[in-house]
Amino acid sequence: MAKVAINLSTGSLQQEEIIVGIDLGTTNSLVAYIHPDTRHPLAINDQGRGTIVPSIVHFPAGQDPIVGTEAREYLLTDPQNTIYSVKRLLGKSYQDLGTHAADLGYKVIDDNSEGLVKIRVGEKFYSPIELSAEILKELRARAEHALKTPVNKAVITVPAYFNDSQRQATRDAGRLAGLEVLRIVNEPTAAALAYGIGLSPDEEKTVAVYDLGGGTFDISILRIQQGIFEVLSTNGDTYLGGDDLDRAIINHWAGEYQLATVLFQNAEAQQQLRLLAEQAKRHLSTNDSFEAAFGDTRLPLTKAKFNELVQPLVDRTIASCRQALADAKLTQKDLDAVLLVGGSTRVPLVYDSVSAFFQQPANNTLNPDEVVALGAAIQADILAGNRRDVLLLDVTPLTLGIETLGGLMDPIIPRNSKIPTKAGRQYTTSVDGQVNLKISVYQGERDLVKENRKLAEFDLRGIPAMPAGLPKVDVNFILNADGILKVEAIELRSNTRQEVEIKPQYGLTDEQVEQMLMDSLTHAREDVSARMVIEARTVAEQMLYQVERFVAKNGQHLTPEEITQTTAGVDKLKQALTTQDKDTILKAVDELEELTRPFAERVMNISISQAMAGKKIL
Ligand code: ADP
Ligand code: MG
């Protein structure tokens, strides 16, 4: 195993090559780099447009997407084609989103499956990965423009609680934007690095990172030892942030100045008031009073009133802090520092409340909007080998994973993971009564296993016969410090198990590793398209299977007209499946779903009422 993948992956790394650090945020994104002369991290401000790029993508009809402040203008005038908060959807299925999908201004496709969500824009379907890639492309373009040099490598940050699937989605977005993602770093880790914590090997510290952004709140407790950042606990609220502070102001004004009727009828007035509320909030971070004109109405707000309005929201964040501390089994006195991250920590009440709770002044000396991106730039610099004082760890140079439906690569241990490491995922059968499951282990960065390197294959036999989807098979990858990979598969109901040991680096030269990495970048577009077609086909096939089974079972509850319509929808989907076009396929899936949902609900009600009727009530 090599010391740090950068040596393997970039035999061609030139000393001056720039690796950027990217904060891909829910509300705002930024890109930063280490200035070659000062050696300090700096957020990129291209053409004086500011360092912050709102994470919003607008699709004008028939033209290339627009990202950032310009895209934000369309939130009001063209909400269906203007996508915001896409980070919330990354790596998630429709089921994961639950009721929150309805709150978004654009259309998230309910394909009623556990597959990853898609967003419909006009006649096209986008995955959150593609939409995030648009934001990353914009950041990359700004960096290239400002630095006048090509940018091909990046470190990207994610929340500490992101799971494997969300991290992988972030990597894929980077790759799609033409960036080799050298590492995915936790946002609180990046913040600590920006504050210079964890840069010297003999340092031991415990810190709390309080991050209040636009729509989310995260508190993380980290232990830093010998350059290793361990997340002791995380807590927070994925639906609490600066937007809620704005809403508290709007509600106050609406109540106090009888604005309800104006707002109810007028979307433009709503938006205008929202902007005024945000302006008021920002103003009160450094002033004691604010006043705006809204039509003929004067809208005043004092800092004292604002504090009173948002106190309950701030209290909720403090309750999360208390829980995080308890989960880490620590008290306030164990913390060496409390770091403030996110634009909303500029609110003085937040600063005061956090400092009071942790019994020490919180640290806010760095710009809270930029601190995560600055830390990512420092991490990039470490990976580039520019900081010899920082301890380097063994990492695995290529992704390890297994084959799933349609010949897709499902990554289990991503490349550049520190070793030793352990990771796993749960799988199930796809056919009723299936008793064997083939596990094929691959190495490489491509989306289709046929482009990757096959390491091993074995059958897990003796799974008890059950309907498809019921068996639970855990597949675990354990990579030890010597680079030996143990793959074990366990069917949990019967405790059937099977394992193999492999040496993934055996017979692989540095040049081959480098070639594999290069290929994954040059083929990123076509790979992601191929993956999306396969995923769309899988969704379509499941849908057809379900609808046909449904009609066979419940045909008597449907009118002849409904049956004709359904048959037409099924035929259309089958026709769509003869193409290799994911938009055509997903559109047919979407239509069939819309068509059959009312029947399914009706039949469900019938069977529930029958069940009720059959039940004896004592
Ligand atoms: P995210 O990490 O979720 O992308 P940010 O950290 O960029 O978000 O935070 C954005 C939020 O910070 C917005 O709600 C914005 O209104 C708020 N914000 C920015 N500046 C200030 C300020 N001076 N006072 C209060 N809130 C602010
Ligand atoms: Mg953030």
Automatic annotation (TrEMBL):
Keyword Nucleotide-binding part of the UniProt annotation: yes
Gene3D superfamilies, sorted: 1.20.1270.10, 3.30.420.40, Actin, Chain A, domain 4, Substrate Binding Domain Of DNAk, Chain A, domain 1
Domain of life, source organism: Bacteria
Stored SUPFAM superfamilies: Actin-like ATPase domain (SSF53067), Heat shock protein 70kD (HSP70), C-terminal subdomain (SSF100934), Heat shock protein 70kD (HSP70), peptide-binding domain (SSF100920)
GO molecular function: ATP binding; ATP-dependent protein folding chaperone
Annotated keywords: ATP-binding, Chaperone, Nucleotide-binding
Database matches in InterPro entries: ATPase_NBD, Heat_shock_70_CS, HSP70_C_sf, HSP70_peptide-bd_sf, Hsp_70_fam
Transmembrane segments: none
Any matching Pfam family: HSP70
Tagged with keyword Chaperone: yes
PANTHER family: HEAT SHOCK PROTEIN 70KDA
UniProt record similarity statement: Belongs to the heat shock protein 70 family.
Name of the protein in question: Molecular chaperone HscA
Organism the protein comes from: Hymenobacter mucosus
